[in-house]
Amino acid sequence: REGEEREIRIEYCRSNPFLAGVRVGALLPVPEDLIDQAAAAAAEADAAVVVVGLDNKWEGEGGDRVDVELPGRQAELVEKVAAANPNTVVVVNAGSVVAMDWVDRVAAVLQLWYPGQEMGNALADVLFGDANPSGRLPTTFPKRIEDNPAYLNYPGENGEVLYGEGIFVGYRYYDRKRIEPRFAFGHGLSYTSFSYGELRLDRDTMAMNGELAASVEVTNAGERAGSEVVQLYLSDLECSLARPDQELKAFEKVALAPGETKTVRFTLTPSALSFYDPAQEGWVAEPGQFEVRIGASSRDIRARTRFELEGESS
After folding, report:
1. What is the pTM of this model?
2. What does the DSSP assignment read for the chain?
């Protein structure tokens, strides 16, 4: 009660010799029906914007997250607001993956990635259409934490972690296991759309010490200026060791006016075709067939073609 004093006792045990700290504070009491109030307000609005996410209490360099859930009742907030208003946009301010079981019940999701002090202005520009978002995901968003490639290996046993996933991390794991992600590596939408032309190579074969040029025409098929991130993946079809189904080898961001077409070009060198062979203790490029894939994400491949690498292994 107001004016009443209480004694608070804090006991602290330092288990990490490198990191230590104590923070003491207080939260003002809040009404228990805040979520219901938000849903009621959303029901009367043309559209609803719900901002959720994490902060330095939940993620940072000094520790690992124990799950991918949104802390507190944030998921419940999203679900109740979305039920009240079908035009609900969810803004996720987080630096890593969060669970989105509600994603099919909202109109849009915008990932912020902790943009800093100008976040409000930047967010308003995107929401009101003054700016066209053109970012792409640098990681795969799984539907369940159990789909994560490190799920069975982390946190390990007896203080040790086995990195059992090997080279099959990220999209490489999801591709090989045929697991459908929530959002694929490289995924991203904008207020326009892009069409891809035929993928062209300047030759059908490549020498061990040579190069190969790839090109594709990209067209802004919408009515808004925007930027597309064209991604080149490479698949080694005849390898002596276990290899990922595909690997990102290059990408190019291209800005296009409505109806504009530009040619995006890439150059492949032998290093892009190489893999590390532990038996030889070095990087190796083997002759054989390779497939070049051009896409808007790892799961949105728009064009593909093959070529032959000729010569002795190097």
Report:
1. 0.89
2. -TT-------------SS-------------TTHHHHHHHHHHTSS-EEEEEE--TTT-BTTB--S--PPSTTHHHHHHHHHHH-SSEEEEEE-SS----TTGGGSSEEEE-----TTHHHHHHHHHTTSS------SS-B-SSGGGSTTTTTSS-BTTB---TTTT--THHHHHHHTPPPSB-TT----SS-EEE---EES-SEEETT--EEEEEEEEE-SSS-EEEEEEEEEEESS-SS---S-EEEEEEEEEE-TT-EEEEEEEE-GGGG-EEETTTTEEE---EEEEEEEEEETTEEEEEEEEEEESS--
HEC string of 20-55? CCCCCCCCCCCCCCHHHHHHHHHHCCCCEEEEEECC
pLDDT of 72-112, one tens digit each? 999 999 999 999 999 999 999 999 999 999 999 999 999 99
- pLDDT for res 64: 84
Q: Are strands 108-111 and 275-277 parallel, antiparallel or unpaired?
A: unpaired
How far is the CA of 87 from the CAs of 70, 76, 108, 144, 158, in angstroms? 21, 17, 8, 25, 49
Which pair of tokens denotes residue 305?
């073609």
Phi/psi of residue 251, nearest 5 degrees: -150, 155
- Tokens read off for 294: 């051009």
Any bridge partners for residue 212, and if so which?
Answer: 268
